[in-house]
Amino acid sequence: DAARFGGGGDLRFSPVPPNKDDALRVPDGYASAVVVRWGDPVLPDAPAFDFDNQSAEAQAKQFGYNCDYVTMFPMGRDRALLWVNHEYTNEALMFRGYKDGTAAPEEQIRIALAAHGGSVVEVERVRGTGQWKLVTKGRRRYNRRITALTPMRFTGPAAGSDLLRTAADPAGLKPVGMLNNCSGGTTPWGTVLTAEENFDQYFVNGDKVPAAQKPYISRYTIPSGIASGNRRFDRVEERFDLAKHPNEVNRFGWVVEIDPFDPDAAPVKRTALGRFKHEAANTTLARDGRVVVYMGDDSRFEYVYKFVSKDRYIQGFDRHNRKLLDEGTLYVAKFTGDSPAAEIDGSGKLPSDGAFDGSGEWIPLVSGDTSFVDGMTAAEVLVYTRAAADKVGATKMDRPEDMERNPVNGAVYVALTNNSNRVPAQVDEANPRPSNKHGHVLELVERRDDAGSTTFAWSLVLVCGDPNDASTYFAGYDKTKVSPISCPDNVAFDRDGNLWIATDGNALGSNDGLFVTPVRGRERGHVRQFLTVPIGAETCGPMVTSDQRSVFVAVQHPGEVDGATPDSPVSHWPDGEGGQPRPSVAVTWHSQGKKIGA
Ligand code: FEO
Ligand code: CA
Ligand code: CA
Ligand code: CA
Fold it and tell me: Atom 1 of ligand 1 has which residue's CA nearest to it?
């Protein structure tokens, strides 16, 4: 049965053509609906959303801005909790007449702090369909907002280190808030891992830290002075001014674990997983039961990482499992091509062995209190992980975004979204295209199919773009039959092992979308566009439910087009004519209840 191995036998839908519509477009035979929008009540006592009368108090109880990662925790057949990240705010679309953070009323800054973070919301199925709706009545005991002001905890080897101590938290154990939570993952014990990505943009005065800290400030691109476009969180929370609180910036850029079923528990920043611009954190188990977390650092020329726990996962032993992410080894990836360098000429032509492929190794950086990096302590490796990876010869990639293991075939897929800065002299077999506008997707097969291995094989599955462009590659599939795809960002799998890819920043000029391709058999590389999101939006989240009757996407930043404002919006999605664009989670299902992709 080809479908069981990602062979795509069940994918029969007609692709959605590229478009620039202000609409969520789905294939013929499918329906879609919004599940939850920016401003919808999350806590039972939240007021109704009123665009022209926003307040921080209301926002802290309402669904936040710019939804990203989406995952679901079932509570029976027809009820579930949704977890959703709120990555960042776009004040120019949120507030009329917004100029910048320096001129903004303080209440707008407080609203922005409250619009970051994440939400837990209870949802229910519309009986007999693949549609899910927000539960809007009753107790909703698990509903929760987490914001940039939520008290949290540090655990793991760097917790309490000098590098994490501040005036407000002299023990270095209690960070406040999370920021720029982009993608994420779940754990085998039923919690969320949510990844802090571009945390640099929230700080001012990165140039005014002590001299010893300065190399790391620049390595993490923390702005000097007050960068244009800065939200000026420092005006209401002094800790964002690094001239006064230089270590505060070290308290962001982590993977945060949250238990959706424990609304009173403080979120936990797991320092053993390192600090960088985390895109996501997806778990799997090694053959011996150790927990493995795959992670990308989404900036140009950054690295791919994995964490392997010291101890094994024991099903049902919750107290034990919840410590697994505090002790283990953090690795960074080195990719080596198997073709002569001269054959990787930047033209997009496949090397003579017929593939961009090769071998690789996981280089250990730190394990518990033991550093493997010359001149750096374990705490330094964990807090300044980028600088540690620089020293060990890791491979600089084209913006590693989401990375996840396919539960059917065991391979790990890495979305490398783009890198317009790579020059011809910098191409290598794993990043073979200069000024890589459209990105690529890499398949990594761990030695003996064991996620705990320290070596692997890899190959490129897709080199994205317009299939008429000679530099593209669709795993050898007939390019006249595939959808154009650009800037792969988030990946997900259905139960048949098909690879779902959400895009961000389609450099072909059409709207972003959600795509699916089989990864095994004759259909490998047959990329088809399943949906497109409204103008100005990126596609996030994607999640095919385990019953394969629904697919969720987060429609992030609809209407985010240069020059758009609330007085001249480019998108009216999802509320329609006269409405302001509202980042929202949407669900798509087959009108006759067939499996997604049918
Ligand atoms: Fe927030 Fe890397 O996308
Ligand atoms: Ca090769
Ligand atoms: Ca992303
Ligand atoms: Ca992205």
Answer: 182
Domains and CATH numbers, the chain: 2-146+178-197+253-259+273-590 (2.120.10.30)
**Could you say which DSSP state residue 27 is in?**
-
Helix, strand, coil % over all residues of the chain, rounded to 5: 15, 35, 50
pTM equals 0.98
Per-residue pLDDT tens for 204-244? 999 999 999 999 999 999 999 999 999 999 999 999 999 99
Cβ of 197 closer than 6 Å to ligand 1, yes or no, is yes
Per-residue model confidence as pLDDT tens digits over 495-533:
999 999 999 999 999 999 999 999 999 999 999 999 999
- DSSP 8-state secondary structure symbol assigned to residue 382: H
Distant-in-sequence, close-in-space partners of 536: CB < 8 Å, separation ≥ 6: 557, 558, 559, 560, 561, 564, 570, 571, 581
* C-alpha of residue 84 to centroid of ligand 2, in Å: 39
Q: What is the CA angle 276-245-381, rounded to 5?
A: 30
Q: Is 298 in the pocket of ligand 1 (CB under 6 A)?
A: yes
Tell whether ligand 1 has an atom less than 6 A from the beta carbon of residue 279.
yes
> Cα of 217 to ligand 4 centre, how many Å?
22
What six digits make up the tokens of 48? 């109704």
